[in-house]
Amino acid sequence: MTFFKFQILFTGLLLLCANAVSAQEHVESRGADDAKMAWWREAKFGMFVHWGVYAATGGEFRGEMPTNSAEWMMNKAKIPIADYKIENVDKFNPSQFDAKTFVGLAKQAGMKYLVITAKHHDGFAMFHSTCSPYNVVDATPFKRDVMKELAVECQKQSIRFGFYYSQCQDWHHPGGMGNNWDKTIKRVSFDEYVKEKAAPEIKQLLTEYGPISIFWWDTPRDMSKEAFESLHSSTNLQPGIITNDRLGKEHRGDHKTFERNIPRKGPVGADWEVCMPISGSWGYKKSDTKFKSIPTLIRNLVDIASKGGNYLLNVSPTGEGTLLPDATERLQAMGQWMKINSASIYGTTGSPFGKLDWGRCTKKAYAKGSTLYLHVFDWPEDGKLFVPGLNNEIEQAYLLDGWQALETSSTDGGVTVALPEEAPDEIASVVVVEVHGKLDITPVLPKPSKDGSLELLADMAYLHNNEGSEDLSLLEEKHGGDSYLSRWSDAEAWAEWSFTIDKPGTYEVSAEVSLKEKKTSFRFGLQGQLQSAEVESTGKLSKYTETSLGTIEIEKAGEHTLLIKPEKESWNPMNLKKIVLKAQ
Ligand code: H79
């Protein structure tokens, strides 16, 4: 080790110690629950597990695959309770299940907590319920309380443990919500279901399974005050337990939830979590090949952390009790990345910057300065990483992988970090920048040039595509130096641009697009004022033309956001190079 490297290592260690001491005081406060939420905010990354008797047939019912997401099979195929018992409950025998290996995988991936479906909407208890024999010990050939095994193992391996419990939908109990297909059910009231099943089961889960850190409700529906109170009060059985916002309508819980979707910005002043399956289905589904790529998964984690949220990534044990190699490989790859880069994730808060062309940023703020973790997705070819708007004095900059020191230079517009030629990681390389004093960042948003026209380029867009995951196809791609929005086959995916203007007024909006099909339609404009537009074929995707979309009114000077959202019924994939706004 050269002396220089040693010095960085030494400073690094000193900083680590200093940070450990001061971290507590300087975590951004979000209110009265700071102490309770501290571990969860630090953790950032958890494993969600959907496991139930639907896995026995991999979501198939008598040779048919009724649903996108296997845990919904009973509902989608309108399976009577008696048939679900024969086809799924009686066949649930996951003899390969080993809690130690399973929890070990979560740990290897760098996950700090695990939340598992104790009971999903099908009503089947994956634990030894004392109030209903419809459970894994009493009703399946397997006869093992898998929740107990996992609870014990998580404690051994220092993984925080939590339960998912479907409190309103229960397609088995005659008072549960959701089952309108099994005509043999002799209905009782929802309150009766709560009294006989939900409340006692929840109480049992919160008293007989050791320390429970999280209770994850799902699909809130209206219920009586009494039912709500009896479910809600049971969480007091575990002091410090964290609950989500899905118990009842308008009940906020401790954190917000985003399902299968990463918000463009984290909600301000709130804790939040994105849950998402690693593949297409939550529960194990035989034919599910929609595994998200390793780059997508790692960049999702980074993206969510850069917005201040947690990532709860779901895996789906099979009917044998194991994960498919597609899942384990991905978890291990995430773990490899975390091994080197986890300091840029754990305990960080969101980015102080707007959109960064090359990737994302997370930060840790201390009394005397801040650490910025620059996650470089697109390694600059000229070796210069420009950090726009950063005015602070730079104490030191280095690569997180190997701690190689990097030169920085400050200019009026920001800081440039000189990078080595090769990216340490193809997916996300972390450049650490330590700055002195309070963060001083000038927001940099695109604004009109002197002639009053404003170009919004493809690489300046925020994409709502879950970081290029397979569920939402829309990518920003580069050809010959220019960026394009492409592969926009999914009408749920959309794009937006933030910018600032000095002069309110009417602006003409045009777009440089290409389109193979006859035409496509979408809505565009400022948030809340979207209007329809249609563009005609350009013959092929490689041929671009500039088309006028119409005019918009911008009433105030300052920051604005322009959106383009596909029209679901009449969308055909178009490529987009840029949007141009011209003052009229
Ligand atoms: O447990 C997972 C889902 O089963 C559950 N929440 C996550 C964490 C969930 N319950 N309801 N919903 C999500 C929203 C409704 C989804 C549906 Fe569908 C759309 C039900 C029927 C169509 C997805 C696609 C599930 C089945 C088919």
Helix residue percentage? 10-25%
Task: Look up the CATH topology of the largest domain.
Answer: TIM Barrel
Alpha-carbon Rg, integer: 26 Å
State the fourth-level CATH superfamily of the largest domain. Answer: Glycosidases
Overall SS class:
alpha/beta
Number of folding domains? 3
Quote the average pLDDT. Answer: 92
Strand order of the largest sheet: 5-4-3-2-1-8-7-6
CATH class of the largest domain: Alpha Beta
Give the termini separation.
63 Å
**Major sheet, described briefly?**
8 strands, parallel
What are the bound molecules?
ligand H79
Number of strands: 26
CATH arch. level architecture of the largest domain:
Alpha-Beta Barrel
**Which regions are unreliable across 5 or more consecutive residues at pLDDT < 50?**
1-27
Number of helices, counting only DSSP H or I runs of 4 residues or more: 11
Our estimate of the beta-strand percent is: 25-35%
Shape label: globular
Short description:
By secondary structure, this protein is of the alpha/beta class. Helices cover 22% and strands 28% of the residues. The protein is built from 11 helices and 26 strands.
Topology (SSEs and partners):
Elements: H1 3-26, H2 34-43, E1 45-49, H3 73-76, H4 81-89, H5 99-109, E2 113-119, H6 136-139, H7 146-156, E3 160-165, H8 190-205, E4 214-217, H9 225-234, E5 242-243, E6 256-259, E7 272-277, H10 294-306, E8 310-315, H11 325-341, E9 359-365, E10 369-376, E11 384-388, E12 394-399, E13 408-411, E14 414-418, E15 429-436, E16 453-457, E17 462-464, E18 475-479, E19 482-486, E20 494-501, E21 505-515, E22 519-526, E23 531-536, E24 545-554, E25 558-566, E26 574-583
Parallel strand pairs: 1-2, 1-8, 2-3, 3-4, 4-5, 6-7, 7-8
Antiparallel strand pairs: 9-10, 10-15, 11-14, 12-15, 13-14, 16-26, 17-20, 18-19, 20-25, 21-24, 21-26, 22-23, 22-25
Bound molecules: ligand H79.
